[in-house]
Amino acid sequence: MRSSLRAPRGVPALALALVLGAVTMPAGTAAEETPAPLAETAPSGFAAVAALGRNGTTGGAGGPTVTATTTEQFLEYIDTTGPLVIRVQGTIDITSKQGVRPDKTIVGVGSSAVINGGGLDFYRSSNVIVRNLRFTNAEDDAVNVGQESHHIWIDHNEFVAPVDGAVDIVRGSQYVTVSWNWFNKTDKSMLLGHSDANSGQDTGKLKVSIHHNFFDGSRQRHPRVRFGEPVHVYNNYYRGNAVYGVASTMNAGVLVEANYFDAVPHPCYSASGYDESGPGRLVQRDNIFAGAGTGACETNGTVTEPRTYYAYTLDRAADVPSLVRAGAGVGKIGT
Fold it and tell me: Which ranges carry the Pectate lyase domain (predicted)?
């Protein structure tokens, strides 16, 4: 099915109030006339694709619901075998990266659920949903999807000050969607493929959809990609990204579509590679490049169309800043 463009999505006030509750805005952003989009109840993009024995990503659906208010409870629940919906309430302090078993939904309650000091790690895990959490001060990665994990949905979170990556997707992982997150002045925002030497494990994998994220003063890796194809980057709002927007390297195939780049000196790298990594392939279409200092998007070669895997509908690039500022981050979904 061919992709199409659509106008901004208005939501009736009563329906919005019932489903989302009070709408909050990322701190420091102006109020928008566009209402917050109705939050998805299931993923779109690669996390929704039936593959590898999974019929999309359903998380802990069908399992019991528990609430974690302490570190001890949280660590016990994410290490439980079988489906489980884990509601996170308040601040959970952890260290390092803590493993998450398959078939989990981890969702923050309201707008004040925090994972502080550490991060979540996926090692041969699958069918996990992570939503509505503020990740702060992770001493390594905030979310690491690794070692052939698949069907992971990372949605409506906020990432603040991780020491390393906000979201890394590496070591043969695939069927991942990263949507409606606020990367709040992060440095290394998102890495797909950890090493130039890992072509054997990563080639043909790292299938990732990245949409409606707010890359807000974040510096680089939005994403940086090695080997993965297709990586579909669409309807994201890039604002003031000092180093670069998207980098396709090591023969990765990245489609950059209907995004809004505002004051981004280097929106895309591909033909020239990046750092010590060789060139990748990148196709750009229907993007807007605006704001002082914004450069051109470097393109190279052809990329497998995501529509060979899933159908999708685009918002217009001109509407992306207001839509994403209104809808990205925590406190925007019913919990």
Answer: 61-267
